[in-house]
Amino acid sequence: MATLEVKNVTFSYDNVTPVIKDIDLRLNDGELVCLLGVSGGGKSTLFHVIAGLNRPQQGQVLLNGEDITGHSGKVSYMLQKDMLLPYRTVLDNVALPMIIKGVKKKEAREKASKYFEQFGIEGTQKQYPAELSGGMRQRAALLRTYLFSGDVALLDEPFSALDTLTKSEMHRWYLDVMDEIKLSTIFITHDVDEAILLSDRIYLLGGKPGTITDEIVIAEPKPREKDFNLSEAFLRYKREIISKIGT
Amino acid sequence: MSAKLRSTISKIGFPLLALILLFAAWQMICSFTNVPKYMLPSPADVVKAFQKDWQLMFTHARVTLTETFIGLFFGIIIGFLMAVVMDRFSVVRKMIYPLVVVSQTIPTVAIAPLLVIWLGYQMLPKIVLIILVVFFPITISLLEGFSSVDTDTVNLMRSMGASRMQIFRYVKLPNSLGHFFSSLKISVSYAVVSAVVSEWIGGTEGLGCYMTRVRKSFSSDKMFAVIILISVISLVLIWLTGVLQRACMPWEKSKHQRYSHSN
C-alpha cells in the first residue's frame, strides 16, 4: 500500500524540446488513477520517468515520501504487449521479478503459485505463454506486475490489444481483482469509456509538450454496477471529458 | 493411415526412392559399360570395400571424431566469449567484427599447411583449424541473437531492477538459443570437413590420411566408401544437434498447440 507523487516533472530526450512539462500528479493509497490523452502525447514517456528508466531534467518522483527519481525496481510496470518470455513457463515468468530481487527460485515459485487461482489462470503454471490466449496472457502479465511490487503499478494500455468482448470481460475481472488486492495503480489509456469505467480519478494529458490539463473525479462507488457504462452518470462524465479534450 | 505417418512417409520415402533410383542407375552404368574400376567403382564394389576395410576406417574415424569434438568444444567456447564481449563493448565490436569477417575469406586449404608448419603434425594444428572454422558462425549468430532482443522487454526487465547480468541470463541468452543451434548445425558439418582437410595436409591418422592413402593407390572403391562414411558422420552429428536443440528449447514444441487452454 502506498502513495506516489510526481512533482513538477519535465523531461526531454534531447535537452531542448520537452516531451512532458511541469507534470504534477498524485496517487493515493489503493486508488486507480487514469492518464487519458491522445497517442504520442507523452504518456508513455511519463511512465518511463516514474518507473525510473529515464531521469527527468527537472522534478521529482516520490514513493511514500521517499525520492525514487531515476531509480528503477521500485514501481511495477506493464505494457500493452504482455512481454511474457516465450522460453519460460507461465509460473517461471510470473516468479521472475522475485527471482531478480534475489528470492530463491523454489520460494518464488511457491509464492507465485498461490495467486494463480485469484487471477483466473489456475492450471497454466507449467504451460508456455504461446499456449495461452491473449486475455490469459494479460492476466499472467498482471500477476507478474503485482508480484513485482505490491505497492504501485503502472499499466500502459494493458487491454488495448484485446478484442472488444475479451476487453470488457477483462475490465470486469480487473475491477474484481483490484477490489481484493487494493493495488495503487496508474493506468494509461486513450479509451474514454475504459477510463471512466475503471478509475477513481482521471488526469487529462494534452498539448505539446504534454501537460496535465485537467483532473476529473469519478465519484461512483466501487465495485461499480454491472451496467454503469450504460447509465446517465456515465454519459455525463463522458460528455464532460470529451468537451475538455476538445474533440 | 494417420496424418503423422503419412507425413513421415512423404518426408523420408521420396528422398529414399530417389536415392535408390540413383544407385540403381549407377550400378547399371558400371555393369553394362566397361568403365574401369579405378575411375568409377560400382555401388557393389563400394560396399565390398567397406566390408573389407571397415575396422581400419573406424580406427581412423575415431581420430577424426576426437579432433572434431575437441575443435567444436573450444570453437563454441571461443565463439561464445567473443559474442559476449562484442555485445557488451561496442568498441570491441567495431574493432574486431570486420577482422573476423575478413578472416573467413581465407580458404581453409590455404591455412592448413601453414598451421602444420607452425604447430607440427600432431593433433593441435587440426584442432586449431576446426576452431577457426567453427567460431565464426557461432559468434555471428549469437551476436545476432543478443542484439535482436525486444527493447520493451529489456526495459521491463530494467524496470524490475534487473542487472545487466540478469538481463543477459534471463532474456538475451535464451533469446539467442535458436540462432545458436542453427549455426551449430552448420558448424558441426564444417568441423568434420575441416578435420578431414587438415589430415590431408599432414599427419598419420584420421579419415583424411586414409583418404590420401587410398587415393594414391587408386583404390577408388575405398575412396567412395570413406566419402560416404564422412557424409554419414556429418548427418548423424547434425541430427544429434537437432535432438539437443529440442531438449534445450522445450517451448518451441508448445508453439504448435496454441489455445489448448480456453478462456
Query: Can you tell me the CATH class of chain B?
Result: Mainly Alpha
The backbone outline of chain A, from C-alpha atoms, is globular
Spans of chain A of at least 5 consecutive residues whose pLDDT stays below 50 are none
- Please give the largest β-sheet of chain B: none
Question: What structural category characterises the helix and strand content of chain B?
Answer: mainly alpha
Rg from alpha-carbon coordinates of chain B: 23 Å
Q: Total strand count of chain B, please? A: 0
Give a brief outline of the structure.
Chain A has 247 residues and is an alpha/beta fold.
Q: What order do the helices and strands come in, and which of them pair?
A:
The complex is a heterodimer of chains A (247) and B (263).
Chain A: E1 4-11, E2 20-27, E3 32-36, H1 43-50, E4 58-63, E5 66-67, E6 76-78, H2 90-100, H3 105-113, H4 134-148, E7 152-156, H5 164-181, E8 184-189, H6 192-198, E9 201-206, E10 211-217, H7 232-245
Parallel strand pairs in A: 3-8, 3-9, 6-7, 7-8
Antiparallel strand pairs in A: 1-2, 1-4, 4-5, 9-10
Helix pairs in contact in A: 2-3, 2-4, 6-7
Chain B: H1 3-32, H2 43-88, H3 90-103, H4 108-119, H5 123-147, H6 151-159, H7 164-201, H8 207-216, H9 220-248, H10 250-254
Helix pairs in contact in B: 2-3, 2-5, 2-7, 2-8, 2-9, 4-5, 4-7, 5-7, 7-8, 7-9, 8-9
How would you describe what is shown here?
The complex is a heterodimer of chains A (247) and B (263). With 247 residues, chain A is α/β, with parallel strands linked by helices. Chain A is 33% helix and 23% strand. Chain A contains seven helices and ten strands. Chain A starts with a strand and ends with a helix. The two termini of chain B are 33 Å apart. Residues 258-263 of chain B have low confidence and may be disordered. Helix content of chain B is 83%, strand content 0%. Chain B is an all-alpha fold. Chain B has a single domain, classed as MetI-like fold, CATH 1.10.3720.10.
